[in-house]
């Protein structure tokens, strides 16, 4: 009987020991888990701090991580013949973004007077809707009529270029140019200088035109110069491209439709520049491509010589004879482009005119 009288006390002690053991282990587990949670939180904080480096202060934790070398960049541009031809487009050397003025009146670069002050205006565009270009530098040059001569500095200007579509876009750069004392034809070049440019390849535009009257035929002579330091072979080709009227935005297809409609023209561009919106090169090639602007029927264009092998710095005169069909009256543009392989090295736009009495 005495053996059973101590049973409740022993049971109570055992239960007490089990409870202490249970809670001790639970406490240890909780302590270990808490330590692990604290370590994990510290690691997450360090990763979040690295990911958010450079982000604005109010950005919530789920903001996407933007690497420090990626940011919004302005894309100042001008009508650039070399860049456009790289994309498979025909070009004109009668640059729509470069214009000369005398006493406030527009004049052609093909009919300039010697020793005369002209105002040169360049229209500068921004292809970015996010980033302006404040303090954009613009350089103006000229050289003798032809292909490849070394340019001479006219002057510089600095403009503030807003984002595309904003008030003040496009911007206009200006300089005063006093033409040389010797009469002749001269060509203009405009170079944009922006260190953080999204696309450096559309920053050089050229104005290079001449006008001739079609007697029988219209004859143009101009030099072609190899501006490189090594021997180059150049090939001259002609087309009749002029900038067509703009398309109504309501009638313009989107890029996907253009790629399906013109599959042979939807090739990848040579230069994949940064762009906030992918350009529709297929639709552009359908309107501005070489196949859409051949020499008109009945016209004859002779280029002598058609190929040139020139040493570095060497020049050679080229003669272009353009014969319109009988009875033709009006004004026709013929572009002559100098190519080294597929690389455009320069060109001229020749205008043939014939009046009612011609």
Can you tell me about this structure?
The protein is α+β, with helices and mostly antiparallel strands and 358 residues long. The protein has 2 domains: 2-51; 76-354, Sandwich (Immunoglobulin-like). 20% of the residues lie in helices and 35% in strands. It is built from 5 helices and 17 strands. It has helices spanning 2-5, 7-51, 81-86, 255-261, 281-288; strands spanning 76-77, 98-102, 105-107, 117-126, 133-144, 152-161, 171-178, 186-193, 204-207, 209-213, 218-225, 232-239, 300-304, 307-310, 315-323, 330-340, 343-354. Strands 1, 2, 3, 4 and 7 form a 5-stranded antiparallel sheet that branches. Strands 10-17-16-12-14 form a 5-stranded mixed sheet. Strands 6-5-8-9 form a 4-stranded antiparallel sheet, with no helix packed on it. A hairpin with a 2-residue loop joins strand 2 and strand 3. The chain is elongated, with a radius of gyration of 35 Å. The termini are far apart. The model has no long low-confidence stretch (mean pLDDT 82).
Defining traits:
Immunoglobulin-like, 5 helices, 20% helix, 35% strand, elongated, 358 residues, alpha+beta, 5-stranded mixed β-sheet, 17 strands, 5-stranded antiparallel β-sheet
For the report, how would you describe the main beta sheet? 5 strands, antiparallel
Assign a percent range to the helix content. Answer: 10-25%
Q: Return the CATH topology of the largest domain.
A: Immunoglobulin-like
Spans where pLDDT lies below 50 across 5 or more residues: none
Strand share of the residues? 25-35%
Number of helices: 5
Tell how many strands the DSSP assignment holds: 17
The overall pLDDT average reads 82
The dominant shape is elongated
Calculate the terminal CA-CA distance, rounded to whole Å.
Answer: 145 Å
What kind of assembly state do the chains in view correspond to?
single chain
Q: Under the CATH scheme, which architecture of the largest domain would be assigned?
A: Sandwich
Along the chain, the helix and strand elements come as HHEHEEEEEEEEEEEHHEEEEE
Rounded to the nearest angstrom, the radius of gyration is: 35 Å
State the secondary-structure class. Answer: alpha+beta
């Amino acid at each position: 009987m005495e053996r059973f009288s101590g049973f409740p006390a022993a049971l109570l002690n055992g239960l007490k020991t089990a409870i202490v053991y249970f809670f001790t282990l639970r406490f240890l587990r909780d302590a270990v888990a808490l330590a692990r949670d604290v370590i994990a939180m510290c690691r997450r904080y360090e990763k979040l701090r690295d990911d958010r480096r450079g982000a604005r202060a109010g950005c919530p934790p789920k903001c996407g991580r933007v690497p420090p070398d990626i940011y919004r960049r302005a894309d100042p541009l001008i009508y650039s013949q070399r860049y456009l031809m790289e994309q498979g487009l025909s070009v004109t050397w009668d640059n729509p973004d470069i214009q000369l003025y005398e006493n406030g009146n527009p004049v052609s670069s093909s009919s300039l007077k010697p020793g005369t002050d002209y105002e040169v205006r360049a229209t500068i565009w921004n292809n970015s809707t996010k980033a302006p270009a404040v303090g954009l530098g613009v350089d103006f040059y000229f050289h003798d009529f032809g292909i490849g001569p070394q340019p001479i500095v006219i002057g510089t200007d600095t403009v503030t270029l807003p984002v595309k579509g904003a008030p003040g876009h496009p911007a206009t750069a200006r300089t005063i140019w006093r033409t040389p004392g010797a009469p002749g034809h001269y060509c203009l070049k405009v170079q944009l200088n922006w260190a953080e440019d999204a696309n450096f390849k559309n920053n050089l535009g050229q104005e290079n035109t001449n006008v001739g009257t079609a007697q029988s035929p219209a004859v143009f002579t101009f030099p072609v110069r190899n501006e490189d330091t090594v021997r180059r072979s150049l090939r001259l080709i002609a087309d009749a491209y002029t900038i067509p009227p703009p398309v109504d935005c309501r009638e313009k297809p989107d890029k996907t439709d253009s790629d399906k409609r013109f599959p042979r023209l939807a090739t990848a561009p040579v230069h994949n520049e940064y762009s906030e919106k992918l350009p529709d090169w297929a639709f552009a090639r359908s309107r501005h491509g070489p196949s859409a602007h051949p020499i008109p029927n009945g016209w004859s264009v002779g280029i002598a010589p058609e190929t040139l092998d020139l040493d570095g710095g060497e020049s050679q005169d080229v003669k272009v004879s353009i014969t319109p069909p009988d009875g033709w009256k009006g004004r026709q543009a013929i572009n002559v482009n100098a190519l080294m392989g597929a690389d455009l090295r320069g060109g001229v736009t020749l205008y043939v005119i014939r009046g009612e009495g011609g």
